[in-house]
Design goal:
flat, mainly alpha, 132 residues, 0% strand
């Protein structure tokens, strides 16, 4: 492995734990600003997930694929995973919107998440239709 490939590998190995740590800190700060420090500390535990990835990557091929540059197989698994997550989140928001509406409330936050998901879907279809 060349020196440049090793440097890229080290950077990609650190990027996922750094992402989790960053999300944990942002959640801590936002909860603390909102007056919920205890909740922020609980949410900071997300960083532990990123640190666990580093330790598990040494033993698990699956965890290693999350922290290093994936091969074709894991890239396809990641693509399907993201698509599946999008479907689950969209259906969850739809169910929450329907539940809120049936309870006599506006369902406004869920409406906006559904509208954003629908718009993003149309934009991605148009983009990938032109670029693939």
């Amino acid at each position: 492995m060349s020196k440049t490939a090793q440097q890229v590998n080290r950077k990609s190995r650190r990027s996922m734990p750094a992402f989790f740590l960053g999300i944990g800190v942002v959640c801590l700060v936002s909860a603390a600003v909102g007056g919920h420090l205890r909740l922020g500390l609980v949410m900071l535990r997300v960083a532990v997930c990123g640190l666990a990835l580093i330790l598990l990557a040494r033993r698990s091929e699956t965890c290693r694929s999350l922290t290093e540059e994936p091969d074709e197989r894991f890239a396809l698994i990641g693509q399907r995973t993201r698509a599946g997550t999008g479907v689950v989140l969209t259906l969850g928001n739809l169910g929450a919107f329907i539940g809120e509406s049936a309870s006599g409330r506006s369902g406004n936050p869920f409406y906006w998440m559904m509208a954003t998901a629908a718009l993003a879907y149309v934009v991605f279809v148009a983009f990938f239709r032109r670029h693939t």
